[in-house]
Each structure stands twice: as C-alpha cells, then as structure tokens.
Specification:
alpha+beta, 16 helices, six-stranded antiparallel β-sheet
Length: about 500
C-alpha cells in the first residue's frame, strides 16, 4: 500500500469512530482476538482500533501509510486488513498489500472491504475497477462472492465469511476447525440432583465441576479435559463409574438430551464443512477428534450421517416439511420466521439450511429475525432493533440471499415513513424465553378485540395505526389501552 505514489487522496477515506471497527468487533465476538494473543492493524488509519484493544489489555500495534508511516510492520497472531483493499485503485498494488498482510499473520488474517449493497457505487464516476467518490477518493465495491474468490485465488487459502464484507483466512487449520465447530455449538447446564445419595453428598464438591464438564462436552472427559481427573479416579475407580453415580442421582433423561444436542451440533458442523474441503480427522482439534469417536464410533460414520442431512437440505420438499414440523417459529404459507435466539431449537436439517446462508454471508449484524423461504432456496435476515421494547417493531434492514444463485438483495427501511412491522412477537421465540409470556399476553388482548384480523391491512406502521385508531385503542408499552375523549385511559391498566 504505497500511498505516496498514488494521486488519489486515500487518507480521506480514514474515519474517526467512537467504537471498534466492524471486523475487529466481529473477531472479538468470535473469540479470535484474545488477551493472550497479539494483533497488528495493517492500514490502521487514525489508530482507534489500536487504542480500543490496548485499553482492553490486548497487545495491538499498527501501521498506516498516511497516519503512521514510520511504524514497524510487525508480525502478529492476528492481522487485520480492514477496509484497505477497497481504497487501492491499482489492482497489482492491492494484491501486494493483501499478500504482505498475509505474510505478517501468524494464525489469522481478517479482511474487510466494502461490498455491493443497495446499488452503492453504481451512480458514481467509474474509475479503474471501482468508482471515484464526490470527495475524489477511490472505492472498489466487491460482491460478497467476488471478494471471497479474490482472497482465495491470491492467498491459496480458504476465506470464511464472518459477515457481509468480512472474511477470516486462517493459517492454523486446527484453529479454523475449532471456530467453525463453535459457530454451531449449543451450551447446556448440568442437570440438578433429583434424589439424595450419601456417596454423592460426600463428594459433591468434586462431582459438581465434573458434571459441568460433562454437560459442556456431552461426554465423559479425557484425563486432560478435567483438572481433577486423577482425584475422580482415585475416589470412584474410573470416570465412567463416577458418571454412573451422577446419572443415578440426577436421572438419565437430561444427560441423554445433552448428548443428543451435542450429536446434532456435530452433524451440523460436519455438514456445513462439506461446503469447503472437509478436514481429515487429524486436522481436527483433539477434543473434536474425541467427539467423533464418542458420538459416532468413527469419523467416517459421522461424515456419512452429515452428508445425508446436507443432501436433504438441498431438497425444497424436505425443507418445506421441516418447516411444517418445526415446533418453534411463526409458520406462514410460504415462510417460517424464527428469532435469532430460537435458531438452536430448530431441527438439524433446518439449522443446516440456515447455516448455508451464513456460510456465504457470515453474520448479518443486527439481524434478529430469520425468514426461511420454504420452497425457493432463499433465506432473509431481518433487523428489528426494537424487537424487545416496541410492541410492534419496525423493520430497519432486510438482507436476502438466494442459496442457488448466490445473489444478495438488501433493502434499507431506516428512512421509510411506513415500514413493515411485526405482530404476534411471541411466535418467533421458544416458549421458555423470558419475554414469551409478556408478548403472548398482548397478542391475546389484540385478538380479543379483533385487531389482528385482515392481516394484509395491518402489516405496516400506518396500516396498524389506522386499525388502532378506528377501534379506539392505543398502546402503552405492551399494554393495549382504550382511548376516551382524546385521552388514553385504561380500566385496570389494560383493555378488557
């Protein structure tokens, strides 16, 4: 990135933020940037990411041709190349910057660039393979698939989508597989004791952390997976005997459910791994190798079962049937809507189908409702930022991906005066969600007064407001109240 030889004022693209950049924030959330590792920000701009990470105790340095030209270009565990490639108008120089950053990365290179969305860049002056902005700067708007292909062609390594325009390129295969497995892994709490047994009570202080470990792994741990393994063997003769006691005292059903959930998570991970080159068992982290033996007998058996599910995920009839079977989500004639928090409660087939979307898009920031198109091979990621607080939240952004054509469509509703809104919010959640009862209570009130009839007329903010006004109601939080004389009143605090 040789800024001095370019006539384009690249330094003008550097912005000042009040928070971490998207790629750094994403990597922190994915636990790829940790305090025990080092980070180098290649093209750091004003250096705000360096300041934020350093303040969290994470060793971070950076270089920038305009703002830190004299800083050293240092090797680090994680190197961030954030929004650098898209401001370099010379294609050869763009490649050199990418390869130089890759050379500095010990375990992981994070690459972020602007992606084509909502026609961005299409009405500006073409220049090289991008556009010139009104400020005289250059911007290259990549397609999501285009950026992935560019990274993989130049680095000869797999680029994994983390989000729109953000990719992870791992040098450490074991680290990559652990990340991919963690993306689909669910956590479970250890079952509580049902009956009292003297031997259990005598060793409760040892058995409780052991139970937590088993619930996390879904299986009994190996000697290096539980710090008090030797003590456990000394007291009970073997780890299996200790777990037999635990099952006798706590009951078997919840432990069987934990094992089943872990088995499903591994099948989802292996099915999605087929989109890339599925690793050999020796390339997996040791805990995952043990999982394959414990849950499937052999890695070959595990891959066979995962392939069967992946094949079904490409069958529209199977997806349609899976949606109709689903015990979670709001089922409509053409779609199944599920809150982000309820995705893990879907059956493995639908989790794999949705995982195909994230395998291409990565995480869509702010998307908290996922729309599974039952028969068309599409997924939509919908952002309702006020989902928890607004009784009928408005849609702010929609990102739809066609899994067959890889086409991405995005619509921004943030400036719309009449955006789409949600009704019956509890239907998107699992029944045990803390907000389910609150949302269901409001829905029952609205149904009682016929407000949710004729759904085609209440799907937008204006349509819903007209329905409320015509029936003499308004909303206060998640309470339906009746309007009298132009003032909002409620008998007993709620509509009766």
């Amino acid at each position: 990135m040789t800024h001095a030889t370019s006539s384009i004022p690249r330094h003008r693209t550097a912005i000042r933020r009040g928070d971490l950049s998207r790629p750094m924030k994403r990597a922190l959330q994915d636990a790829l940037i940790v305090a025990s590792g080092t980070v180098f920000d290649y093209g750091c701009g004003h250096g705000q990411d360096i300041e934020f990470l350093s303040a969290q105790g994470i060793p971070c340095t950076g270089w920038d041709p305009a703002f830190r030209p004299d800083a050293a270009k240092s090797s680090a565990d994680v190197v961030n190349l954030g929004y650098v490639l898209n401001v370099i108008e010379d294609v050869d120089e763009r490649v050199r910057a990418l390869k130089e950053a890759w050379g500095l990365a010990g375990s992981l290179l994070i690459v972020a660039a602007l992606v084509t969305e909502d026609g961005r860049g299409q009405s500006q002056l073409p220049f090289s393979d991008g556009v010139l902005t009104g400020r005289g700067t250059f911007q290259k708007f990549f397609g999501q698939g285009e950026l992935k292909a560019f990274l993989e062609a130049e680095l000869q390594a797999e680029a994994i989508p983390a989000s729109l325009g953000i990719f992870y390129v791992f040098k450490n295969e074991t680290m990559q597989q652990q990340y991919l497995a963690n993306r689909v892994r669910r956590r479970a709490a250890a079952p509580r004791m049902r009956i009292s047994e003297l031997r259990f009570e005598e060793h409760r202080e040892l058995l409780e952390p052991f139970m937590a470990t088993v619930s996390d792994l879904g299986r009994v741990p190996a000697d290096d997976e539980f710090s008090r393994w030797s003590e456990l063997v000394e007291q009970f003769g073997s780890v299996k005997r200790a777990f037999a006691l635990v099952r006798r005292v706590t009951g078997s059903e919840e432990w069987d459910a934990i094992r089943r959930r872990r088995t499903e998570d591994l099948l989802v991970y292996l099915a999605l791994a087929r989109f890339r080159k599925r690793p050999k068992i020796g390339q997996l982290p040791m805990p995952l190798q043990r999982d394959m033996r414990a849950f499937f007998g052999t890695y070959t058996n595990a891959c066979k079962r995962a392939d069967e599910l992946l094949f079904l995920a490409g069958n529209p009839e199977a997806i349609d049937e899976g949606c109709r079977r689903s015990l979670v989500g709001k089922l409509l004639p053409d779609d199944l809507y599920v809150h982000r928090s309820a995705l893990d409660a879907l059956e493995p087939l639908l989790r794999i189908y949705e995982g195909c979307g994230r395998a291409f898009l990565g995480e869509v920031e702010g998307a908290n409702i996922i729309k599974i198109h039952r028969r068309t091979g599409k997924l939509s990621y919908l952002a309702y930022p006020e989902f928890e607080d607004d009784p009928h939240p408005a849609l702010v952004r929609s990102v739809r991906v066609n899994l067959r054509s890889r086409q991405i469509d995005s619509i921004d509703y943030s400036q719309s005066v009449n955006p789409p809104i949600l009704h019956r919010k509890e239907t998107f959640l699992i029944e045990s969600d803390p907000l389910h009862a609150k949302f269901a209570k409001l829905t029952a009130q609205e149904e009682k007064h016929g407000l949710l009839d004729e759904t085609s007329r209440i799907g937008t903010r204006e349509g819903w407001s007209r329905r409320l006004a015509a029936n003499g109601f308004t909303l206060k939080g998640h309470r339906l109240v009746r309007c009298k004389g132009g003032n909002d009143e409620a008998s007993g605090g709620e509509a009766s």
